[in-house]
Amino acid sequence: MNTLQIVERVYAELSERIVQGAIPISLRPPALVGTVQDDPFDSWVGEAIKRTLPDIEVFHAGKLTTPDIVLRHRPSNSILGLEVKKLIQQANGKDPRGLTIDYNSCLPCGKALVKVGRDTVEAPCFYLFALLSNDSSSIVTSILMDGDFLNYDFDLHKDAKYANQSEYDHGPYGEGSVRHRRMYTYPNPLNYKLNFFHLRHILVIKQHDVAALAARDVPCTDLIVRDDKYQNSFHYIVIDNSTRRALPLDHLPVRQDIFQACKSRRPRERTASMPQLPE
After folding, report:
1. Confidence (pTM)
2. C-beta atoms surrounding 129 within 10 Å
3. Which of 39, 82, 233, 240 is most enclosed, with most CB atoms within 10 A?
4. What is the pLDDT confidence band of residue 47, given thresholds at 50, 70 and 90?
5. What CA–CA distance (Å, rounded) separates 243 from 199?
6. Residue ranges making up the domain that contains 21
7. What element of type H or E holds 124?
8. What are the tens digits of pLDDT across the range 149-158?
9. What's the rounded mean pLDDT across residues 121-150?
10. Which residues, at least 6 apart from 161, have a Cβ–Cβ distance to it below 8 Å?
């Protein structure tokens, strides 16, 4: 089994759980959550894969480590990284972030470094974006996406992993330290304004990977063209197992420049905040 087939099976498992347009979930209550990084949704994803795909090993990477989950099909030795990004729906149905979402200290990528014993390997990495209902009882949007859709520059990803550092001997007494930890914001596929993503349960893969899927009749619904800064064009296909209106690849609606609003952002001058008292 190759990594794309692992992705296909994970997506099929999520699709089979859909009930009236949402995926019911049951998360640990807050009282049983350990640290801030102990995310019960990550745990739910891992347990769901373990229960339904017993031939796939599930490893949780631990706090502040990318990707969140590593999947391995031991018979074929295929390894797949799975980064989990979740948001909780607002009462009005919108997502809470809009244009971008935080990627903490390491930017997204379609490949990740994984330790296997003493060896370091490069593994394909997919992202599971999930918008939970306002009461966190179900997933109302799920997007299983090839990480290259967001960033295909693996060297940039690796540079980011090692860019964080601490500075000591800080302050007049030399007793302080400064932690230089970068925060990256990249596009948010859960943005409610992206109506071809919002409130759907979909798989997003490269167009040339469609032929490698095990399923013969793949329900393709959209073609997304990603043009980079260097005049390169990359084509991605949206697959939706819940639809009955699949079209041939050459008849799909074409979506282009879907994150244009992110590109339009400009730096803003930052000023120091301080208390202000009346005269």
Report:
1. 0.92
2. 23
3. 82
4. very high
5. 13
6. 3-208
7. strand 119-132
8. 999 999 999 9
9. 97
10. 66, 105, 106, 113
3-state secondary structure of 187: strand
Split into its structural domains, the chain has a count of 1
Whether the CB-CB separation of 207 and 250 falls below 8 Å is answered with no
Look up residue 233 and give its two tokens: 């064009």
Q: For residue 71, what are the β-bridge partners? A: 58, 80
186 close to 148: Cβ distance less than 8 angstroms: no
Question: At what angle are helices 40-52 and 3-16 packed, to 10 degrees?
Answer: 100
| Phi, psi angle pair for 151, to nearest 5° | -165, 120
203, part of any domain = yes
With left for phi above 0 and alpha for psi between -120 and 50, is residue 242 left, alpha or beta?
Answer: alpha
Q: Look at residue 30 in the predicted model and tell me its pLDDT.
A: 53
Residue that is written with structure tokens 């990528």 in the block: 109
Token couple for 69: 């989950």
> Is residue 80 over pLDDT 60?
yes
Phi-psi region of 64 (alpha: psi -120 to 50; beta: other; left: phi over 0): left
- CB contact set of 33 (below 8 Å; sequence gap of 6+): 39, 40
Whether 213 maps to a domain, the answer reads no
Residue 25 sits at φ, ψ, to 5 deg, of -135, 160
80 domain-assigned: yes
pLDDT at 31 over 60: no
Contacts of 269 by beta carbon, 8 Å cutoff, 6+ apart: none
C-alpha closest to that of 214 among 8, 3, 75: 8
Q: Give tens-digit pLDDT for 232-258.
A: 999 999 999 998 677 788 899 999 999
